[in-house]
Amino acid sequence: MARKTLLISIKPRYAEMIFSGAKTVELRRKEPRVGPGDRMIVYVSSPTMEVTGECTVTEIEKDVPDKLWKRIRNKAGVTKQEFDDYFDGADQAIAIHVHKAKVFGTPVGLGTLRKVFSIHPPQSFRYLQEADWALGT
Fold this sequence. Notes:
The protein contains four helices and six strands; from the N terminus they run βαβββααβαβ.
C-alpha cells in the first residue's frame, strides 16, 4: 500500500518540542487520513515560515476531549488549560502520535515552497503528492 505524506502547520514552540522528542503527539480538531508509517512534513508557522523537518506517524487516536486528555497528557506538550481552550466546543479530539522526528539539513522557506514546489502551506494540514516527497531529502 502506498504511503501518504501529510504537510502540517505547527507553531514554532510545538515544532521544537517534536524535534527534541519532548512532544510525541500533535493535536488536531480535524482527523487527517493518515496512519502508521505515513510521513508528516512539518511546516513551522509564523514567524519561522519554513519546512524544517519530518516525522513518521505511528497512530491516530480520537476520542472525546476529556478521555483523550487522560491518555496523552504527558505526550502532547500542552497544559490542561491549553488543551481545553483548543478543543472548546469540539465533540472529538484527534491525537497524531509520531516518532523518528528529524530536522532537515536545510529548511525550505515559504518563498521556495511557493515558487519552486508550488506548495502553499495550509493553516492546518494538507496532503502532498508522491512527486513532492523530495522536500528536504
